[in-house]
Amino acid sequence: MVDYFRAGYPEEVIILYKRLKLHQIGLDGKTITFVLKSCTELENLYLGKGMHVDSLKFGLSGDKFIGSSLIVLYSKLHRMDDSQGVFKEIIDKDVVAYTSMITGYSEIVDSVAWNAFDIAIDMLQGNLEVNRVTMISLLQIAGNLGALKEGKSLHCYSIRRALVVSDYILETCIVNLYTRCGAYQSAVATLQNSKGTAASWNAMLSGLTRAGQSFDAIHYLSVMLHEHKITPDSVTFANVISACVEVCYFGYAASIHTYLIRRYIPLDVVLATALVKVYSKCKKITISRHLFNQLIVKDAVSYNAMMYGYLHNGMANEATSLLNYMMAEGIVPDFATVLSLLAAFADQRDLVRGRWIHGFGIRHGFCSDGDVENHILYMYSVCGKPAAARVIFDLLEQKSLVSWTAMMKGCLPYGHGDEVVQLFHLMQKHGEKPDSMSLVTAVQAVSELGHLNGLKQIHCFVYRSLLEKDKITANSLISAYAKCGRLDLSVGLFFSLEYRNLDTWNAIISAYAMHGFYINMLEMFKQMEEENIQPDELTFSTVLTACSHAGLVKDGWRMFNSMTSVYSVLPQEEHYGCMVDLLGRAGHLEDGYKFIKLSTLKDKSTIFCVLISACRTHRNTQLALAISKELLEHGPQKPGIYALISEVYAQEGQWNEFTNTRARANLSGLKKHPGSSFIELMEQGMC
Predict the structure, then answer these.
(1) How far, in Å, CA of 314 to CA of 345, rounded?
(2) How far is the CA of 439 from the CAs of 192, 294, 373, 493, in angstroms?
(3) What's the pLDDT tens digit per position in 598-628?
(4) Which are the contacts of 625, defined by CB distance < 8 A and separation ≥ 6?
(5) Where would I find the PPR repeats (predicted)?
(6) Which tens digits make up the pLDDT trace of 30-43?
(7) d(CA 300, CA 432)
(8) Which residue ranges make up each domain of the chain?
(9) CA 132, CA 162: separation in Å to the nearest integer?
(10) Is the pLDDT of residue 401 over 80?
(11) The pLDDT value given to residue 632
(12) Would the pLDDT of 92 be above 90?
């Protein structure tokens, strides 16, 4: 029996045990222990419970070896209540029994894992030493729970007992603990005070990347190389390349690739997949495909990365072709494949391919998964098919909070605010407690409808649910109160917040701008600077738009120039448009024209139209006609541009040019779709 088990034949162990049991020979504790280990290998709960019953029949329930084996079995199958029951029955608990129980808790990410620390205390009180294996499990539990205080105590204990000396695995666990708890300085200090290995540095680099501290991850690669003289491995480079992707630091990622080539370091699947992602992000899809083709062994992760690259670059046909090729090669798509395709088609509003992947999911059995169902629901919602989304939603056997939120978010862009409100009510009736995402969606719906009372009721619900400190919810409430005409409530909520992030400042700046308090808006911008909050593209769009409406030309120029010179924010089309509108409203039409010509934008047609509108307002027909001719010389334009240019010609009585412009629009197959609007007649309550 022992030989069968050690040779890797757990099924034969079970068969042999049944024969022994039939003849009632050799049924001792050692036999049952090895049979239980075989059940664990097979992850067979039914057989394991049968062995548990046999141990009780034979009077071996208190045997510490059998007990430890049962604990390992139940823990591996996430039956911690059963493990706890067996643990209590063991009469003479040793280090193995305690460690088995603690290791079981390390396999789950749940609040019940806090029990492991109590078990460790009992172990110490029983004069048993915590060994290396126990310590590794406890550190993993502390990391899973974010238990920094307990983690530091474990670190101190390991130092006192000299467990961490020259034990690189234990050191890596300690670094991983600190990074998962967000204590990056402690992780760095641990590495600085030890020789360290690539594995321990990898733990910190991956933790920094997961936490969004990508620049720090990039910095510590240099520290690792130059100060500590540690040779990175493929996982190290993959972590740093992933960090480069997060912050769009593509040049550094390319330099790492060059370093690998010069050092003749082969690309394994992990490293090549990371490079595929980074080149896809920076629009170099040909290099991504070349790296992908170089992989001798490809797995589902590498295929997913390549498909994501195609989708990110608008090459949906290539992505679906690669999916078919992947299956032809015998590699089974996983849930990540289907989820990434659904998310991409939803972002691109590609209903045809979204339906195709829906059918693919049905054919291959992916649609029974809750996450896939929610992505399908969201895809139909954002692709303009809320009715189809509602059918799928109604057919869901179990509606999770994510399902309710996806349905609500899907209704929002199409003016179905009332339906969002109804879903919000219905969700609570079904026993689902709203989280920050569902609350934000409901807040957006009532603000679009102008339901101030409903908004106040949601705000009360936020306080009752102890979510008032949640930044996402608070920021949405600040914006919503401003939209409902209550700037005073927006300001009051803003100043009541203990911590404010960039989105909070953007919300209050936008609120002041919306209500025409431009001086207050500029003061808030200055205060934001004083608190060392870095403005982003949205901040400048709001401020420049407000300066345009207020005629603050000098302030507008100062803000625009500071984008690149002070904050390293690259102006986009929207920012150029705001500046042209500002100059146009102020009558500085020639300055506006020069500004556009000097801009770095490839397509300047939209902001030229802004200037044409300003020329019409100020009756500068000569400049308007010159710009119109310049636009028409650049080939086919958007329907709105043709309409605007034809109006310029009509205003000047140049009817031949008017007719020609209309004819060009018709020949190009362009149509200007009429808009629509509605008025909300009745305000309804919310909570």
Answers:
(1) 10
(2) 44, 47, 21, 16
(3) 888 888 888 888 888 888 888 887 787 787 7
(4) 648, 649, 652
(5) 299-333, 400-434, 501-535
(6) 888 878 888 888 88
(7) 35
(8) 534-667
(9) 10
(10) yes
(11) 67
(12) no
Among all chains, which residue has been given the structure tokens 């030989």?
3
CA distance 72 to 104: 7
Nearest to 635, CA basis, from 665, 672, 676, 606? 665
What tokens were used for 607?
């902001």
Between CA 151 and CA 141 the distance in angstroms is 9
Judged by phi (left if over 0) then psi (alpha if -120 to 50, else beta), residue 369 lies in beta
Question: Is residue 675 very low, low, confident or very high in pLDDT (cuts 50, 70, 90)?
Answer: low
- Give the per-residue pLDDT at 635: 54
pLDDT, tens digit (0-9, with 9 covering 90-100), for 211-234:
778 888 888 888 888 888 888 888
For the record, the structure tokens of 195 come out as 């020789």
Residues 6 or more apart whose CB falls under 8 angstroms from that of 521 comprise 509, 512, 513, 542, 543, 546
* Helices assigned H by DSSP within 467-552: 471-483, 487-496, 502-514, 518-530, 537-550
Considering only CA atoms, which of 587, 577, 576 is closest in space to residue 617? 587
Token pair 């170099």: residue: 284
Dihedral sign for Cα 314, 316, 318, 319, please. Answer: positive
Second-level CATH architecture of 534-667: Alpha Horseshoe (1.25)
**Distance between terminal CA atoms of the chain?**
66
- For the stretch 638-665, pLDDT in tens is 656 667 777 776 766 667 766 766 666 6
- Residue among 426, 415, 338, 414 at smallest CA distance from 381: 414
Q: Which residue has the tokens 């909050």?
A: 533
Distance CA 202, CA 193 (A): 16
With helix as H, strand as E and coil as C, how does 352-386 read?
HHHHHHHHHHHHCCCCCCHHHHHHHHHHHHHCCCH
Q: Which backbone phi and psi does 69 adopt, to 5 degrees? A: -65, -40
pLDDT band at 668; cut points 50, 70, 90: low
Quote the CA–CA distance of 531 and 501 in Å, as a whole number: 10
The answer to whether 232 and 224 have CB atoms below 8 angstroms apart is yes
Residues 204 and 179: beta-carbon distance below 8 Å: yes
Which SS3 state, helix, strand or coil, does residue 214 take?
Answer: helix
Quick one: average pLDDT of 301-320? 86
| Maximum distance among all Cα pairs of the chain, rounded to whole angstroms | 111
CA distance 473 to 443: 8
* From 1-10, 68-77, 489-498, the region with the lowest mean pLDDT: 1-10
8 A C-beta contact, residue 247 and residue 215: yes
Q: Which of 506, 587, 503 is nearest to 541 (CA)?
A: 506
Structure tokens that stand for 369 in this block: 């998964």
Pair 610, 583: CB distance under 8 Å? no
Judged against a pLDDT cut of 90, whether residue 543 lies above it is answered with yes
Query: Per residue, what are the HEC states of 24-64?
Result: CCCCCHHHHHHHHHHHHHHCCHHHHHHHHHHHHHCCCCCCH
Q: What's the rounded Cα separation, in Å, for the pair 74 and 44?
A: 10
Provide the residue type at 316 as one letter: A
Q: How far apart (Å, rounded) are the C-alpha atoms in residues 58 and 67?
A: 14
Stronger pLDDT, 634 or 36, i.e. the higher one: 36
Q: Which of helix, strand or coil describes residue 144?
A: helix
Distance separating alpha carbons of residues 486 and 598, to the nearest angstrom: 41
pTM of the model: 0.58
The CA distances from residue 31 to 5, 13, 262, in Å, are: 11, 9, 57
Per the CB < 8 A criterion, the answer to whether 441 and 405 are in contact is yes
Determine the angle formed by the axes of helices 269-281 and 285-294, rounding to 10 degrees: 170
What is the Cα–Cα distance from 145 to 613, expressed in whole angstroms? 59
